Amino acid sequence: MEKPIAPTNAQRGQQTMLMGIAVNVVLVIVKATAGWLGNSYALIADALESATDIVTSTFVWLGLRVASRKPDENHPYGHGKAEPLAALLVSLALVAAAILIAVESVHNIRTPHETPKAFTLLVLAGIVLVKEVLFRKMNQVGSEVDSSAVKADAWHQRSDAITSLTAFVGISIALIGGPGYESADDWAALLASLVIVFNAYHIFRPSFGEIMDESPAGAWKAEIEAIALSVAQVEGVEKCLVRKTGFEYFVDLHLEVDGNLTVREGHAIAHRVKEAIRAQKPAVYDVLIHIEPSS
């Protein structure tokens, strides 16, 4: 019996996004229904946030599909930039949702309305639990496959959990405080909109850095230099540039070798370095090496 083929990083990311979409479809229905029946705008705002989760998760899923395509004549470096672009769309959608929630919250604060029903607290408690579990699962997969888009959408789920938690607190205050505290859940929704904007920046910053070819976080540069220097006849690393594109990394190296070596010998050294780096760093798609005389 043949051993089943393990899914690629892109496939794992896509499967995770589809799971998140399915969960959010159910949550939108539950939140909107409970919010309408329970007189809670905070819960309705929460439903709106989950609706944006569905849209952004779909964008991320599409982005991952595009990013997983092989290089072609028009895109010799692949389609990896689609992945951080999808993450940027998530951050922009979060800001849009936060603005809409804030505007409606202010309107409801200024408009008298009934106190939310007590049963909405049970709904919110369940939602917070589901969203936190979903965040942890998606963030784990995002870290394992090194996907900024999947991690961005995971934080979108976390922001939804925070929105639900603030709604829970607001409704609790409204129920305990009684008359005069009816708008507590609206204030909670307003506070949640600020938290959502903060999470949007948390998503935007690394995604924008990746699009701008920012050096990846961690010890990538030091580790690649160490691998290069471990190869025989490499006397120094004059320059090491690393950039991330989607699920893969591209490396540019300037290596110093004995200036008396022939072109053929220098070429062979470059190939050994490239093979060593790709063997120890499977996420590296390509290594471009320039040979320089050490003296």
Description:
- One of its GO terms (molecular function) is monoatomic cation transmembrane transporter activity.
- Residues 222-293 form the Cation efflux protein cytoplasmic domain.
- This is Cation-efflux pump.
- This protein has helices at 9-37, 41-67, 82-110, 119-145, 148-177, 184-211, 220-229, 263-280, and strands at residues 236-245, 248-257, 284-293.
- The chain is built from eight helices and three strands, in the order αααααααββαβ.
- The chain is mainly alpha-helical.
- It has a three-stranded mixed beta sheet with strand order 1-2-3, covered by helices on one side.
- It folds into two domains: 9-211, Alpha-lytic protease prodomain-like (Up-down Bundle); 220-293, Cation efflux protein, cytoplasmic domain (Alpha-Beta Plaits), CATH 3.30.70.1350.
Key terms:
10% strand; 295 residues; Alpha-lytic protease prodomain-like; Alpha-Beta Plaits; three-stranded mixed β-sheet; 8 helices
Please provide the count of β strands: 3
Spans of 5+ residues with little confidence (pLDDT < 50)? 1-6
The name of the CATH architecture of the largest domain is Up-down Bundle
Q: What's the end-to-end separation, in Å?
A: 58 Å
Category from helices, strands and their pairing: mainly alpha
Average pLDDT works out at: 83
The percent range for helix content is 55-70%
Order of helices and strands: HHHHHHHEEHE
As for the CATH topology of the largest domain, it is Alpha-lytic protease prodomain-like
Report strand %. 5-15%
Question: What is the C-alpha radius of gyration, as a whole number of Å?
Answer: 25 Å
Number of helical stretches of at least 4 residues: 8
Side-by-side strand order of the widest sheet: 1-2-3
